[in-house]
Write a structure and sequence with these properties.
alpha+beta; wza like fold; 3 domains; Outer membrane lipoprotein wza fold like
């Protein structure tokens, strides 16, 4: 019984340990940049411990040793640089820990149909699914894809880039539905300055003799029959053989006779008329 209990405890805790180490490794790989605030702890020398802001030239001032380069370096590299310089005539085998108090140099933007849009720090090898999780996930009105908008020349924007801007930005389209179902090939790695834009889903309108008339979120490839199912199906007074779609064609509202397996287009209005008898 004790062995079985131990096995179950290990099976429960092992994923947590692996997650801890993965997150820890990701943070350690963070590349320091200007305006980041570093929390530096020098064990047994607490008067030297504190918070230090990396300046525009990528350096910060540390007591005793003066300017220390940090920009473009990982946290572990900064630790080693401090350890080396403090060992040169100041302390024997100093124990130094460096972490990020405030992430300010690298960031991404998550906008559109997410619960908490805004800028977020880019930490380590952050992926799309992590960014969406930080933004509270997508809303019920979100389309089934996300757009990663990225500066094509490597420059950094002061705000989010939108896919309709004429700025030469590259746009990467990601199938969020496939990502959520486990297709990790869709889980793109993000870069500093990326904007994740989750568009609002297109709508289809279903009216007439259906159980629940109204507007419904339209996914790609939906047929007339599937759209009718979203509205609860046709009532016993509805004429299945005379269903029409009202669609804008070249700016004019046009009514079309359709079949149940025809594909619905965004903005379509499906009309189910009453049976003659």
């Amino acid at each position: 019984m004790d062995a079985e209990h131990s096995r179950r405890v290990l099976a429960t805790l092992l994923p947590l340990f692996l997650l801890h180490f993965a997150v820890h490794a990701q943070v350690n790989n963070y590349i320091v940049g200007p305006q980041d605030v570093l929390a530096i702890t020098l064990f047994d020398q607490q008067d030297l411990s504190g918070k230090y802001t990396v300046e525009a030239d990528g350096t910060f001032t540390f007591p005793l040793i003066g300017r220390v380069k940090a920009g473009g370096m990982s946290l572990r590299d900064v630790e080693q640089a401090l350890r080396t310089q403090l060992s040169d005539g100041f302390f024997k085998n100093p124990q130094v820990s460096v972490s990020v108090e405030q992430y300010r140099s690298q960031r991404i933007f998550v906008v559109g149909e997410v619960r908490t849009p805004g800028p977020y720090p880019l930490v380590g090898d952050m992926t799309l699914i992590e960014a969406l999780a930080r933004a509270g996930s997508t809303t019920e009105h979100a389309a089934g894809e996300a757009l990663i908008v990225r500066s094509s020349d490597g420059s950094r924007s002061s705000g989010p880039l939108l896919p309709d801007q004429k700025n030469g930005a590259d746009v990467i389209r990601v199938d969020v539905k496939a990502l959520q179902s486990g297709r990790l090939s869709e889980n793109a790695t993000l870069r500093d300055g990326d904007t994740i834009f989750v568009p609002r889903a297109e709508l289809v309108y279903v009216f007439g003799h259906v159980h629940n008339p109204g507007a419904y979120t339209l996914q790609s490839g939906v047929t007339v029959l599937q759209a009718l199912s979203l509205a609860g199906g046709v009532t016993d007074r509805g004429a299945m053989s005379r269903i029409r779609i009202a669609r804008l064609l070249e700016g004019k509202r046009t009514e079309l006779r359709v079949k149940l397996d025809d594909i619905v287009q965004p903005g379509d209005t499906i009309i189910v008329p009453e049976r003659y008898f």
